[in-house]
Amino acid sequence: MMEQLTYHDTDETVYHEQLDNGLSVYLLQKKGYEKTYATFTTRYGSIDQRFKKGEEWITVPDGIAHFLEHKMFESEKGDVFQEFGRLGASANAFTSFSRTAYLFSATSLIEQNLETLIDFVQDPYFTPESVEKEKGIITQEIQMYQDNPGWRLFFGLIESMYASHPVRIDIAGTPESINQITADDLYTCYRTFYHPSNMVLFVVGNIDPEETLALIKANQAKKDYTDRPAIERDYGQEPHGVHRPRFELELDVKTPKVLIGYKDESLRGEAQVRRELTSELLLHLLFDQTSSTYLELYEDGLIDDTFSFDYSSEEEFAFATFGMETEDPDKFIQAYETLLQTRPDFTEDEVTRKRNMMQGKFLRALNSPEFIANQFSRHALAGTNLFTLPTLIASITKEEIEARFDELFAIENRAISIVKPYE
Amino acid sequence: MSQSFSTWKKEGTSYHLVPTDKFKTTTILVTFSAPLEAKTLTSRAILPYIMEKSTAAYPSMKALREPLETLYDAGLYADASKFGEEHVISFQLDVVRGELVHHPSLLKEALELLEQMVLYPDLTEGGFREQFVKQEKRLHALRISSLYDDKMRYAQQRLLELMAPGEAVALPSLGTLEELEQITPSSLRDTYRSMIEDDRIDVFVVGHVTKEEMEDALSFLPSHSEKISHYIPAQKAVNGVKRSSETQPIKQGKLHLGYRVAVDPTSADSIRMQIVNGLFGGFPHSKLFMNVREKESLAYYAASRYAALNSALYVYAGVDTKEAERAEKIILEQLVDLKAGQFTDEELTQTKAMLINARRQILDQPGQLIGWLNGSKMRGLTLEDEIHIIETATREDVVRLAAAIDLDAVYLLRGEA
Q: Ranges for the Peptidase M16 C-terminal domain (chain B) (predicted)?
């Protein structure tokens, strides 16, 4: 039976049903929109490289989830991109640390496009020849990222924060690791992680929820899925503290870039959503242009438009980062070390202002079907709900934010990554 | 598609309104346009960075940004960009609809801040505040040199300079370090005054507002005599293929090709040219994607882009430097095939369907809607007109227009790492 969830503070309604084969379907009607956007997401990403196959633990080559994503677009009938093209839709996919998502956006022939999306993701087809050919393309994709200073800076930091957790592996792998991938490996990963019970289908647009659900149900009823035991994954035993406190890399750049990270403990479910929002409020309070420190740092050239911060969290890991482009990374590091030694006194007014700001940010993001589908799926796979964010934000207190400061900024959890010009 | 648009003029300013209640926000863009010239470019490029940070009444970032945060993250930013042979300074406001947060005067309060930013910058010291100018000059120098770190943008800038050396369209959008040196608090004030007094003003609004509300809200804008726009660069003939290459210690080579396109950017043919571009390198079913990437596994990306305003088409691919020659050969062959009509009816149908899909989606994003209104004002066509032109284009149109594409320049950034 379809569950209908209305969120009055966002003026949106989500329809949900979990099908017999375990697939979770979510539908959101956006009246007046031309476009329908659908994502079909599996809880399987670059970190899932060690898992149980039958009775046996196996380790697969780095970068295989992303490789599989590329190869899914090949079907026995040909290239799936072409099929979407004929239907006037644009299709794409992306692989992150913990998810792989396939998607399309279209303004017509929605039913055919939706069936095409579901069918191609549920119909793997790999040959040794096509697997070989993909290696050249992905090697070029890896090289493109190798030349991207921001990407190298980020991964330099992740590798420094984590000693053994597979989050430290580049999502696309390396030219060497992908070279080992075989068609059989791809089938193994596919069978393990693409069962409907490990996936979420989200459709947002000017759709009729009843009709769309009927179509999805009829499609799934035609396919034989048997129940399957829960997936067992192994992310190893990540020690406390960071792997190495500092990492430097020389690249062909003009301006040095520095990124500081604080490794955080990740909680489960709504507790982590709350922790994520509290951390974001904290970072805004510390580093926004309205913070008490910004002007001071700005005058010393220690904060400017190239400064950015972020809090990333998934079920298995969480960390806060901030950094910028600067001629003198060490001066920057020192200033922030001093700044974070003592917690500033936040006022209730400031906290209220930041809560308003986060509410507004969230509401603005709801203009975007892409944001809704991607973020809702992320939450659904973690057992949480995107649309509880406004209520959660409103309930976070100044005391919680202050406690977060004391927890997050421990020196043993700090790592630094620097990209600088060749000497 | 039933979205209505209206465009009108008042006191020299052109207004473009898309009334709709489907978004959670109201978006307003005010643009100031002047001829693109080397001597004013750098000054105009840095001006918005200074103007968005403070005003006379809100004399610091903190003072200006605090009320915006309270107003539910109202976005208020200034920006600069090139548009053909014009330079555009823009001020954008986007704000959550008041009724969603039980704050009915939200838009009005945010507009007040937009007015402050545009009309009342901090000139209490005579010019802009010396301390801010100094900081921003340092930052702007950083921005200019950072272009070097983004290899795709760097290669594209080099290609533009190769195609049109010394011309306005090839000027770097952030300006130059030499010009930056010369900027002072009072020279910036003069740049600001000239923007207010001499520039052509356009206003774009997407949201749940009426024409009257909008005129009333923006009545603070200076009134002008009508200004002629002159942003469309003259067309250029090709005179032999220009070549240039450089080597940097990077892993992947960047191959960029520039073509001249002998098609009037204000004509319906410039819409049809999108089909030619789509078949050539605009989509995953295009010749470049299918041959350079899928068939030969030479690249992760190999694509083309038609810049109607500049009467140019650009191809870019990230390739192993050793394979650059082979990649170029394959790219050139794809255009030869296209000119010879070697594409299937299915490819043509598919390309049209994708282009129409992309046009319809414009209506779902305030920013894209404004971008389309701005980019299409030179043609005077509606979105429906454009879709009709695409739907009715023929195979003969494609062959005829492909013949108008001529290779002008090839730039290769070699990797050696």
A: 183-355
